[in-house]
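re the bet — no i am not wrong, look at it urself. input seq straight from the record:
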Amino acid sequence: MAKLVNRLLLKRLNLLQSFILLCILTLLAVLAIITVEFAWAENLRKRFGEIDWILPSLVAAVLLTVAAGIVSMAVLFYRWKLKRPLEILKQASEKISANDLGFSISYDSRDEMGELIAVFENMRSQLEKNLKALWRSVEERKQLNAIFAHDLRTPLSVLKGYAEFLATYFPEKKLSEAKVLDLIHTMNLHIVRLENYAEAMNSIQKLEDVPVHRDRMDILPFTAMLNNSAEQMVRQFGKNFVFSIENANAEINLDAHVVMQVFENLVANAARYATHQVNARYVIRGDTMHITVTDDGPGFSDEALEKAALPFYRGDMWDATEHRGLGLYVCKVLSEIHDGSLQVENGPHGGGCVTASFGL
């Protein structure tokens, strides 16, 4: 009976209406019981006459009935309207305290407790969204820091190579003044690039936010700078570097820092796998510049062809402490934000072949 009343009536009433209804029902029940008690007392008086204990017993029975009615009403009100929602809120609070937000709560009642649980569920849902957003932000920042540390190595190694070159040949006066000034100018360009790169990485939240600033330039001076950096990197691995260029008189419009970052990652990756030589080919076709870097190493495995551009994929790379599996991922993202793409394949004669394209 209680379940039927709860299902048909109490769930549609708010707390105040439910309380008033229970008060009325309790009052009617108490009055009915008190009427029976008065009838019982009258029957005793008719049967035994005026006895001293009948009136005190009647008063005690009435008081006990009223007290029992009040207690029963409170218990029913708690069980029907408060117990279940309070249990739901308690369990939900315990889960939130334990940093568990992967749940949902509901309460099929139209009263204030139902509204409170609905508000609590909205709060939990918003907390879950905020926590996921915060987690994604932290992960993106961690990945960005890893990329930053990874990409700092290349220009620093180039600068180190220039410094060692100067330290080796300048004391022996094997370098002309023009060559020294040219090396200093090139080193200064790399230092400026590092400053700009550090500033850019400090102001963005993920790699896809790297700004692209295009400048018009001749291809020969630009590729000469790329080749100098590549020679320095490849030399550190004891390999040779060879390049070729198509449409050498073309004029290009691109972000030199973004293209250089992609190119150096491609060369560094190829130098790790190459047996003797790394090759670079520059091609201008229409409004796109293609840079293809190949090596004479074992080439990509079938798995690597599918996953090489994923972040932190290293395959069977032996240099696990230095190689973090970020180079080709960085190349892919930067090529795409420069209106281009990255293609990973094996060359026709073996060895890895990676082509980065940039929209001009």
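see?? The radius of gyration is 41 Å. told u. also Confidence is low (pLDDT under 50) at residues 317-324. so pay up
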